[in-house]
Amino acid sequence: MMSGFHGLFSVGSIAGPACMAVLLGAGASPLAATLCVTAGITAAVAVAAPNLLPYGSESGGPVFALPRGVVLFIGALCFIAFLAEGAMVDWSAVFLTSVRGMDLAYAGLGYATFALTMTMGRLTGDRIRQRLGGREIVIFGGLCAAVGFAIATLVPVWQAVLLGYAFVGVGCANIVPVLYTSAGRQTVLPEHVAVPAITTLGYAGILVGPAAIGFVAHAASLSVAFLCLTVLLAGVAASGHLLRV
How far apart are CA 74 and CA 52, in angstroms? Predict the structure, then answer.
């Protein structure tokens, strides 16, 4: 079920901006639109609350944990996957406007393309994993995302950039769900310790990664930064056969 959970997370990342755009387009003030979305979230939590699990892991687990061994390896792969996702969130539109010369009004098409393909990939990911296997998903996903960044960077037209972003979305869609599943199959750390450790490293990719891409872009160019992601994602694909998934 892990890919489906992440898929609904992606649905939320699309639905939130879409709701704000509709409210603002209808003439609502930013404050009123924010309050409407807040009310929707509150209502959703109230409906879901009776069905939330009243318990956690049988033995409990730390909020923060330092990874080691294969857990560190899995966490590093999560870091790269989240780094690619963070690059799409923060830099996809910048690349389209500053490197490919797209009009600012259409720059959001880049992230929209990525988010759409990622959401579709995650909502179908559980069935795909049952047919192909987790290891194959990591290998294919890493290669697909690497090819996507390469196309976006090396083919000098904006249409190719959108195609590349679509490949990145498909490739990154199910890497993290599979890696989270693999946390329960390693024996170095108990699962209730391994999951916080992997989460710590993974989400560091979203927090630190976009800033690191900015530093690389400032020192060289945004194209060079994207090509660095190509190499890292190719490394994820090459590491896939080492996973126990």
Answer: 28
Is residue 61 helix, strand or coil?
coil
Read off φ and ψ for residue 88, nearest 5 degrees. Answer: -70, -40
CA distances from 9 to 14, 15, 118, 119, 149 (A): 9, 10, 11, 8, 23
Burial of 231 (0-12, 13-18, 19+ CB in 10 A): exposed
**Selection from 17, 214, 23, 33 nearest residue 116 by Cα:** 17
Q: How many Å apart are CA 83 and CA 60, to the nearest integer?
A: 29
What is the pLDDT at residue 65? 65
* CATH 3.30.360.10 is right for the domain spanning 57-242: no
Q: pTM above 0.70?
A: yes
Q: What is the structure's pLDDT at 220?
A: 92
Q: What percent of the chain has pLDDT over 70?
A: 95
Query: For residues 19 and 37, is the Cβ–Cβ distance under 8 A?
Result: yes
Domain boundaries, the chain: 57-242
Residue 217 Cα to chain centre, angstroms: 21
